[in-house]
């Protein structure tokens, strides 16, 4: 049987996770979805859709969706669902895990890599983070959970943009881009999130989407166009075509930041493995997401590498095309990571 795709839905309290889930569950999309809710969630899906009197852990809904709450840990719930599916007791095609608003998505994501039984049955598709435009700045200023949720995201949905002015939304977009440049952002009103931007994003399935994002790490690419001749009063990188003439950007010194390592020289595989192993030992808990495409000495193929906290892995990608420039590109997203130490260390791994 093919692996069951799983999506982690996260976001701070009140960001609209349940609204999005209700829409996904009740829409006639023809997909059968199992939803796993952390039962200490502040707002349970069952308020409207499910029969609240039910004591059963798994509830089958009329459109083929299934809901269950986590009564024990996630690993056993996933294993239980997969077993019921194998026996034909439940029929579903994918899983959505809704975390509580105060959760760190890291341990949830790690479950898919650490546990053999889960890894044999499921493929982690992506982490979706909802951000409430009205309250986000305050939450990001005061709550590390909110910053972590942004740092982990493969896709960010900004909700409630109708409640704030365009300048504030623009500020928020810049701030989030600075924290996590690799997650595309989409403004949403929950009536209209296309399911194509919720499922099958392949945020974690590396070989399927080699360059990881359409504009992989564009935030430092091609900024040679005289950006240095005017002062920024903020700390954000800009995309092509963006102007830096908005004086309203406030400088947020978020502890979740990202930076990129690039090199056209090949990396020495043994040195790189030793260095990354040592870094992960020390800084793993603060390393939210890191991934890249590597040019390793002696390899004719691209090496795709990624990690969550202390867990990292690599896959062989396709061969470098004739005439293609062989470049290593890596992005690190984490909490107060020592950029200089990491960049110097990676330089030291060049062959």
TrEMBL record:
Region annotated Disordered, chain positions: 219-252
Segments of skewed composition (Basic and acidic residues): 220-245
InterPro entries tied to this protein: CobW-likC_sf, CobW-like_C, CobW/HypB/UreG_nucleotide-bd, P-loop_NTPase, Zinc-reg_GTPase_activator
Domain named CobW C-terminal: residues: 256-350
Nucleotide-binding among keywords: yes
Catalyzed chemical reaction(s): GTP + H2O = GDP + phosphate + H(+)
Keywords of the record: Chaperone, Hydrolase, Nucleotide-binding
Entries under Gene3D superfamilies matching the protein: CobW-like, C-terminal domain (3.30.1220.10), P-loop containing nucleotide triphosphate hydrolases (3.40.50.300)
Pfam families, per the entry: cobW (PF02492), CobW_C (PF07683)
Similarity section: Belongs to the SIMIBI class G3E GTPase family. ZNG1 subfamily.
Chain's role: Zinc chaperone that directly transfers zinc cofactor to target proteins, thereby activating them. Zinc is transferred from the CXCC motif in the GTPase domain to the zinc binding site in target proteins in a process requiring GTP hydrolysis.
Protein name: GTP-binding protein
